[in-house]
Amino acid sequence: MRFGRLPTSQLVPHTFALDRMKYAYEVFAQGATTGALKVVLHRG
């Protein structure tokens, strides 16, 4: 990851800003239909 060789978008395809935390949780909770195994929250 440090050198940009690992395609992180394939590891964590669901990223959301902190202000969308509730929606991110909904996506994660419906993982069977959304395909979300994990979500990442980021600032801004």
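the 2nd protein, sequnce then structure:
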Amino acid sequence: MPKSQPTDSDRFYGAVFMTETPMNDSIARRTVLVATGATAATLAVGTAVSRTQPSPTTNAADTADMTDTAPVAAAAVCTLTREMTEGPYYLDGQYVRSDITEGKTGFPLKLALTVVDDDTCATISNALVEIWHCDALGEYSGYVGNNGHNEPDSGTFLRGGVLTDSRGVASITTVYPGWYRGRCVHIHVKVHVNVTLTSDGSFTGGTELHTGQLFFDEQITARVGALSPYSANTVTRTTLAQDGIYDDGGAASGLLTLTALGSSPSAGYSGTLTLGVER
């Protein structure tokens, strides 16, 4: 699978990474992230609603016969925000699948990402939510070795996406990401609509509506990072506060709501966020 070529600002030399560069105001597409949880109680567009948020365990395969007039995201405030840099490690043509782990070691992460229209907050079904991120040792598939660790490279691990279901929810199983030089722990995300699924399990065509990043609570990351296999990462970790991309904007800047799946970090976490896009 061909690699996309890093721009000059994204290039690295040897094993030393350059920090990803935030998007310029003039090229940032208008998108929104919808704040969820106890502090989000009203709707910025239209009237307030009382439906509850979808469960993180929602089945993303249930997409048939739904339209873009799906239920409005509940108890939410639509907040406009800029897109965030794609970074140098995006690869085209990844698989459409709900589990992207490919046997990679790490603590389970169950993502439930809800896609809504930023003008109406109505959920969008059949949108393809695509993610990619590094493994516990900070290595991206297709670029293994760039963070100083040697391991097999399938070119596809920890990459892929799913169609949103009738409630606009994309449910993806992965592992808690590791880290690499100059960046905090994060996941890259894109939202596409009107894609065509291909016979090889991938997708083609469509329109890309959003490129952004998902971020993790620093205290949880510190606990995860102290345990194997993350503790084998030899690179000094950049904290959330030190990161040059995350702007401390909370959910409006991609900060996930994380819920422990057990009493130990090794049991994993669920991660939820509502992502609004400009149609």
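The radius of gyration is 18 Å. Residues 218-225 form the longest helix (8 residues).
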